[in-house]
Amino acid sequence: MSDARLTPDVELNGISPDEAFAVLGNKTRLDIIRVLWHADAAHKYDEVSDVAETLSFTDLRREADIDDNGRFNYHLSRLVPHFVRQTDDGYRLSGAGKQIARTVIAISGTDDLDFSADLEQPCPLCDAPMTVSYEDQWLRVRCTECAGQFGEETPYGSVFLSNYPAAALTDRTADEALTIGFYRCMLDNAYFMKGICRECGGSISASVSVCSDHESHAGDSCARCGTRSPVWATQRCETCGFAKRLPVEVFALGLTPAISFLNEQGIDVLAPSMDEIVDLLDNGVETAVSEDPFRVTITIRGDARALEVSLDDEMDLVGLNRDASE
Ligand SMILES: [Zn+2]
Ligand SMILES: [Zn+2]
Ligand SMILES: [Zn+2]
Do 177 and 292 belong to one domain? Predict the structure, then answer.
């Protein structure tokens, strides 16, 4: 089926994760990467330039502020070829070197950042005020009154929580940060449902758990599973370990047919408001589980018709009805 997952063959070309940690765990080498990044030393046609910028050995050593030729040469040689490329004209970053530089930039500069704030938008579940906090590079949004969206799967009151790059908090209000965080999460889900890790491009493996005696009334958590949702999925990257655990319906919204169906209903799933998604999940989506073979069938109601998607126990799309009756 055209919506089936891609399973790309990912190889960690020539260097193991342990070797990469060992190579990068050194200030001089990170300085070399920093200097090359500041000098825009990168491959021709990468990004925006059609000119390959390079730095000579001497310039690179001077900019990195290292006097000892032998020591500098040793550290530089450890970075070549995986993170730094040596050409006839000089040295430049490889794609991996640039990714390291970008990651360092994305996570920099917030040791003393206090991002605790009240949000302007109210809780989508109960309309009480919400607060946001930022700690350990995580954005955490909590309701000040209700139990939140995820029951016992998350700290009490959690409405939204996600890894969030520190650099993206600069000059943003709490409400803007939540909008961006939500957007990034919905994109993560679209990647997960294609079986691809958004962090590293690796393959995703998934599992599904079902609360067999689920009882949840008026948005309260079920006594048995402690959440409002009977079916949860865990999706994890086999290469880098990036993982999420969410109610299956939230993941299913990232399927291409769901994105397209909801777009026709006026909901942009990739950039929705939190109210829209919570309302949709509470009032417009139904989930049924059947055995032999195991199937989770999610029905998303629209104006005139409904979309029905069936997932197997590995979250692969195995059934699709774009014209289900209401
Ligand atoms: Zn609330
Ligand atoms: Zn339950
Ligand atoms: Zn990954």
Answer: yes
Residue 4 lies in a domain: no
Per-residue tokens: 104? 């360092």
- Do 131 and 164 belong together in one domain? yes
Region of residue 195 (phi > 0: left; psi between -120 and 50: alpha; otherwise: beta) = left
CATH assignment of the domain containing 46: 1.10.10.10
Q: Which residues of 131-145 are buried (b: 16+ CB within 10 A; e: fewer)?
A: bbebeeeebbbbbee
Q: How many domains does one find in the chain?
A: 2
Radius of gyration of the chain, Cα coordinates, nearest whole angstrom: 24
d(CA 61, CA 76): 9
- pLDDT value of residue 103: 87
Q: Assess whether 124 and 46 both reside in one domain.
A: no
Average pLDDT, the chain: 88
Ligand 3 geometric centre to CA of 10 (Å): 10
* Ligand having the closest approach to the CA of 145: 1
Q: Cα of 177 to ligand 1 centre, how many Å?
A: 19
pTM given for the model: 0.84
Indicate which ligand has the atom closest to the C-alpha of 141.
Answer: 1
Query: 129 C-alpha vs ligand 2 centroid, how far in Å?
Result: 27
Residues spanned by the domain of 124: 117-324
Ligand nearest to C-alpha 151: 2
Of 106 and 133, the structure prediction assigns the larger pLDDT to: 133
* The dihedral sign for the CA sequence 11, 191, 248, 326: negative
What are the pLDDT digits (tens) for 11-48?
445 788 888 888 898 999 999 999 999 888 776 556 55
pLDDT tens-place string over residues 308-324: 999 999 999 999 999 88
Taking the C-alpha atoms of residue 42 and residue 10, their distance in angstroms, rounded to an integer, is: 23
Q: Ligand 1 centre and the CA of 274: distance in Å? A: 12
- One domain, residues 90 and 132: no
- Dig out the tokens for 232 from the structure: 């949860």
The rounded Å distance from CA 89 to ligand 3 centre is 34
